[in-house]
Structure to design on (1207 residues):
């Protein structure tokens, strides 16, 4: 292996050179010859009937090219990728999801028409001149209001606005456990609605090739092949062979760029109509009202305990907001990515979770960093703190008491998952040591002397990543397989191109995947190219989300590399006149075991393409292999996060004094990149806990529609984070790299740590997110009043 | 009615015909084809568009191209010289101060202006200076580290 | 943005003449350009004050400072004259927006715009500043008329703001976590003529003086002097970021902190 470029090395990122010099190519950086510009005309109302659209003024504007409405664009609807069934076995309500509104608009931002102009400004001027006559209707906006009797109906076919009423677990066993419980802890909580806000706004360029009839879509996507499949098969009826999707450099996704969006279908369809390329780039205010939102749950949870604080059973009821339409993965987020995680790291023997998914006149809600798992973790880790308070136990001790022990793996939870491995005491111990848990009372006292309230909060998370075993998810309603594909093309001179279905939009795959190749083949990084994000180049792929790239895409890559090595051994054996079984591949050389006879990787590659001395009757020339990898199980990263906060009682401001993280990601390819992923995840989690929330008014107007009102975390909101990897890591047992995935952990584990710390500081039972200054100030005042009594 | 604007960008004299309502960032990206400067919001907060105008960091999305008439503009493309990264760019690479790269050009340009004003900024000062630059990937942790290191390297 | 004409003003007189009807003056543009981008305004013409060098600069006069209307926040923040005469004003300027905004935004633009959450109006009112225009001199008390409204008439251009030096002063801002504008900002000045307290960010009608604080502090210029003074939430903003009650509370906390920090 070349020094310091293989698995485990903090190799500096190869993609940075282009990003740091302004040479990256994001979708909006691409311009096609003869390009026109699209502007989406969006509904200003949450719920309305479209009475009339008058194009006459718009079409008379300078530079006007075309305008299309729902009447013009009769195509398939945007599909939902996961069928969830009700408790009674009947399917969920699955209303249509038109690309351009048909007769009704159902949320502010719903697209009514597209206006295309010669320049962006002209398109916008013409769009402003489009006259749409709406008949405004009452709107169902908040979860709690939408399920009340008599609430406005988003869809006629969804009575009471219910999409599905789903359950998981053994309800009878849970009820029995509660009946004999010594103590029960209860908690009502809200998981606040978030707007993902990747820094690059979504964009799409559609281009039609008159010569071939081929369509190309450049788009800000985390999974171009999935977009090709969904848009080609379900929306526009274009065969894969005539449709190319390019997702070039993408400026962050966090889930929001997984889904197939209307604008992608609109520019692709419309370019076929006008035969000119069409570019659409979202303004940020458009992103706020059209990118799928995240979270938005209202829940009630109860934990039954024995007299010693051992968990006996967990009961959860959740309302989950779907928004107005079912976005691509929306339905599986509050079910199979949520309730399945409710065992957490604990041995709770019986769990039952009921989830009602609810339609509202709001932007669709779908996966956002963590997707279901942050909601489960926030619920559980908050509830465990309530349990500790109830039992008058230390929050660390009650956790430790209920941990699944290393000897219990593989561990079957009562909510479908089987954890393969883990060591939860190890990460808890490590985090307690990092924060100096024993020293906390002294720090609290020191803070009190300054008039500050100091608090500490623990969160022990687990997540199910590496999505996903296709057969398992298929049996649960997924309408796709969730394997990954990799292709290894060894060129005649021994350089290597890797074509992966995983897509990087900040994760650094061009570095980590190359490290895997370098480790396996002994080829220097400079001779390895990682190609991703183009269906025209890459055989197939399911893309990047659910912390799956290295666990699934990396595993596919290893399988393909193994095939290359196997073929290389055959060629080398022939060249060295040895038996194939005697040839071993090590440090970039094929060597006859026990001899000094060897052929380099380069020599073998050249022979494959210049097959003069070659076993041609047994072996094809060339050296290129492809593999698909379908995981056998999810991976289960876990860890412990501890937050320490100081609160200014007078203003309610909160300082995150320290934040420590101890994670078990199994085997790590590039520690520097993994730590960066954790930092970013923690910041998003703390953003949810302290700052961010999406607010609609009662009429469905989005009040947090820009950075003036949606509080994005800034650099001065955080301290530097202290991130370490478990000193007793437990590598994944079922994938070839032993990796688990690290992209979402920070966002999953951090919100409960922070809220637990705030509740600890204030001595309150619960505080919903975001813990704003005003909420904290009010709670601190109440705290002072209680103390005075 | 288009007007002609002329300025010096990355050391080169440039001019172009633009509508008066053209923003400096549009002129840079669309007229000049320098797409390293990004647009991440429409309320002048995210800082992805930060460039230097006459040596000072400004948000190029909040300035008309016409207002930059005759100015000296430096964008991310103008930082590296002879294929060698500017010390601040190098610090971002070394300390993994970027992930998706979208906010990065603005971050780097802001960071360089900070160091012009404050040769040895503390962590607190760096974090405060970045108020107008939003990053969604890094949690700012490594950006702050990179800027501290970049400041040292620029000294 | 809607389409508009653009004119670079050659002189103040030139600007005053052009800035009539649907034309608008643009100084740093830090508020106007975002407003135009969102198509919330449709001026026929922008008259750019950017080239008017005689509107840029800071002069120490009679113990106070006179700041040219086109002087940027960054220039005020780093000015030795301002730091010496009114350190609170330099500190205020250093806290406006973010560094890139401070490099473009101007004092004249901020004052003329009179955003209810802007910082400078509080300084002008508390320090008893005089707004000098192309036509006249206007006291700060008379200048700020309500949300985005001022005493400026059509074709009237701010040329400078004169700040008399206080004995002591400080500005304390509690930021809106999203916009980073003042959720509540309180400028406290102890002047020869008495104590003046101005509040920005909180009032439904923009910047206002807090007379009850001024009286209490007139008797004793110490944070504790405000302990018994009640702040009524009536007339204060209530929105998704803060209730009127909370703003009322913060006005007192920020005022006390400003008094204790005044120098």
């Amino acid at each position: 292996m070349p020094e310091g470029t293989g698995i485990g090395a903090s190799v500096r990122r190869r993609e940075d050179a282009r990003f740091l010099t302004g040479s990256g190519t994001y979708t909006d950086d691409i311009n096609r010859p003869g390009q026109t510009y699209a502007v989406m005309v969006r509904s200003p109302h949450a719920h309305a009937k479209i009475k009339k659209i008058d194009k006459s003024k718009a079409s008379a504007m300078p530079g006007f090219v075309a305008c299309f409405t729902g009447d013009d664009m009769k195509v398939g609807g945007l599909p939902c990728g996961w069928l969830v069934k009700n408790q009674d076995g009947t399917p969920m309500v699955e209303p249509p999801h038109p690309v351009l509104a048909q007769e009704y608009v159902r949320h502010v931002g719903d697209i009514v028409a597209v206006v295309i102009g010669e320049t962006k400004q002209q398109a916008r001027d013409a769009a402003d001149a489009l006259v749409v006559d709406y008949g405004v209707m009452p709107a169902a906006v908040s979860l709690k209001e939408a399920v009340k009797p008599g609430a406005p109906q988003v869809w006629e076919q969804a009575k009471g606005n219910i999409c599905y009423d789903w359950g998981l677990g053994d309800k009878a066993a849970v009820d029995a456990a509660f009946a004999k419980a010594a103590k029960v802890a209860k908690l009502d909580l809200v998981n606040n609605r978030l707007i993902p806000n990747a820094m690059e706004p979504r964009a799409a360029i559609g281009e039609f090739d008159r010569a071939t009839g081929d369509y190309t879509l450049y788009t800000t996507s985390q999974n171009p092949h999935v977009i090709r499949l969904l848009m080609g098969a379900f929306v526009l009826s274009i065969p894969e062979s005539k449709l190319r999707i390019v997702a070039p450099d993408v400026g962050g996704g966090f889930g929001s760029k997984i889904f197939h969006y209307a604008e992608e279908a609109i520019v692709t369809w419309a370019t076929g109509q006008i035969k000119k390329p069409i570019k659409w780039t979202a303004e940020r205010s458009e992103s706020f009202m059209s990118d799928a939102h995240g979270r938005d749950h209202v829940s009630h949870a109860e934990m039954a305990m024995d007299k010693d604080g051992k968990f006996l059973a967990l009961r959860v009821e959740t309302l989950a907001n779907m928004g107005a339409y079912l976005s691509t993965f929306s339905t599986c987020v509050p079910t199979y990515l949520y309730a399945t995680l409710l065992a957490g790291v604990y041995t709770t023997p019986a769990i039952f979770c009921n989830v009602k998914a609810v339609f509202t006149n709001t932007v669709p809600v779908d996966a956002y960093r963590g997707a279901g798992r942050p909601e489960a973790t926030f619920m559980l880790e908050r509830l465990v703190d309530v349990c500790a308070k109830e039992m008058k136990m230390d929050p660390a001790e009650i956790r430790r008491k209920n941990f699944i022990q290393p000897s219990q793996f593989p561990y079957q939870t009562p909510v479908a998952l089987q954890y393969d491995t883990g060591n939860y005491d190890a990460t808890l111990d490590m985090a307690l040591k990092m924060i100096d848990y024993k020293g906390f009372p002294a720090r609290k006292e020191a803070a009190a002397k300054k008039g500050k309230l100091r608090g500490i909060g623990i969160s022990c998370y687990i997540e199910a990543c590496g999505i996903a075993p296709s057969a398992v998810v298929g049996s649960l309603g997924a309408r796709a397989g969730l394997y990954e594909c990799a292709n290894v093309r060894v060129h005649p001179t021994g350089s290597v191109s890797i074509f992966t279905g995983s897509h990087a939009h900040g994760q650094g795959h061009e570095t980590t995947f190359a490290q895997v190749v370098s480790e396996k083949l002994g080829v220097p990084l400079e001779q390895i190219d990682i190609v991703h994000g183009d269906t025209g180049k890459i055989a197939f792929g399911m893309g990047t989300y659910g912390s799956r790239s290295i666990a699934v895409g990396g595993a596919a890559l290893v399988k393909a590399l193994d095939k290359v090595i196997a073929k290389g051994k055959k060629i080398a054996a022939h060249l060295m006149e040895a038996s194939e079984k005697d040839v071993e591949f090590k440090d970039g050389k094929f060597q006859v075991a026990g001899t000094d006879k060897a052929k380099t990787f380069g020599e073998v590659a050249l022979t494959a393409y210049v097959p003069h001395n070659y076993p041609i009757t047994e072996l094809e020339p060339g050296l290129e292999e492809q593999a698909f990898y379908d995981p056998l199980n999810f991976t289960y990263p876990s860890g412990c996060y501890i937050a320490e906060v100081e609160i200014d009682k007078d203003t309610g401001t909160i300082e995150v004094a320290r934040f420590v993280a101890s994670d078990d990601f199994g085997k790590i390819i590039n520690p520097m990149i993994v730590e960066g992923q954790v930092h970013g995840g923690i910041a998003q989690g703390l953003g949810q806990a302290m700052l961010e929330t999406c607010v609609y008014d009662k009429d469905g107007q989005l009040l947090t529609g820009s950075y003036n009102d949606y509080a994005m975390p800034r650099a001065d909101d955080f301290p530097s984070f202290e991130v370490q990897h478990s000193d007793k890591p437990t590598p994944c047992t079922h994938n070839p790299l032993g990796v688990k995935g690290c992209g979402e952990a920070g966002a999953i584990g951090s919100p409960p740590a922070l809220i637990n710390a705030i509740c600890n500081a204030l001595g309150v039972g619960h505080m919903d997110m975001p813990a704003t200054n005003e909420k904290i100030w009010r709670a601190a005042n109440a705290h002072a009043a209680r103390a005075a009594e | 009615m288009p007007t002609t604007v002329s300025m010096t960008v990355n050391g080169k004299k440039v001019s172009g015909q633009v509508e008066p309502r053209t923003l400096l960032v549009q002129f840079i990206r669309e007229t000049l084809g320098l797409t390293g400067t990004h647009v991440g919001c429409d309320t002048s907060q995210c800082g992805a568009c930060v460039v230097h105008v006459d040596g000072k960091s400004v948000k190029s999305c909040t300035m008309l191209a016409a207002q930059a008439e005759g100015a000296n503009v430096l964008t991310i493309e103008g930082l590296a010289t002879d294929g060698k990264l500017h010390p601040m760019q190098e610090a971002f690479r070394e300390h993994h101060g970027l992930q998706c790269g979208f906010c990065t050009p603005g971050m780097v340009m802001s960071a360089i202006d900070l160091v012009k004003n404050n040769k040895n900024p503390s962590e607190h000062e760096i974090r405060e200076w970045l108020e107008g630059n939003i990053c969604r990937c890094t949690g700012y942790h490594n950006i702050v580290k990179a800027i501290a290191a970049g400041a040292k390297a620029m000294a | 943005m809607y389409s508009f004409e653009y004119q670079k003003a050659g002189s103040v007189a030139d600007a005053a003449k052009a800035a009539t009807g649907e034309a608008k003056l643009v100084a740093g543009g830090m508020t106007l350009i975002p407003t135009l981008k969102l198509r919330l305004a449709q001026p026929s013409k922008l008259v750019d004050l950017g080239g008017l060098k005689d509107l840029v600069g800071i002069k120490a006069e009679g113990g106070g400072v006179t700041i040219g209307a086109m002087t940027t926040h960054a220039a005020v923040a780093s000015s030795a004259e301002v730091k010496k005469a009114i350190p609170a004003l330099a500190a205020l300027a250093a806290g406006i927006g973010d560094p890139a905004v401070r490099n473009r935004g101007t004092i004249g633009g901020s004052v003329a715009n009179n955003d209810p959450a802007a910082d400078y109006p509080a300084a002008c009112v508390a320090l008893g500043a005089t707004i000098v225009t192309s036509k006249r001199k206007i006291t700060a008390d008379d200048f700020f008329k309500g949300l985005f409204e001022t005493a400026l008439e059509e074709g009237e251009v701010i040329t400078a703001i004169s700040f008399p030096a206080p004995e002591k002063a400080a500005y304390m801002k509690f930021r809106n976590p999203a916009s980073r504008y003042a959720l509540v900002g309180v400028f406290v000045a102890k002047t020869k003529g008495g104590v003046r307290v101005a509040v920005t960010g909180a009032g439904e009608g923009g910047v206002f003086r807090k007379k009850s604080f001024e009286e209490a502090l007139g008797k004793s210029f110490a944070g504790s002097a405000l302990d018994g003074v009640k702040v009524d939430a009536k007339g204060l903003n209530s929105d998704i970021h803060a209730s009127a009650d909370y703003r009322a509370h913060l006005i007192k906390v920020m005022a006390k902190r400003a008094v204790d920090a005044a120098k």
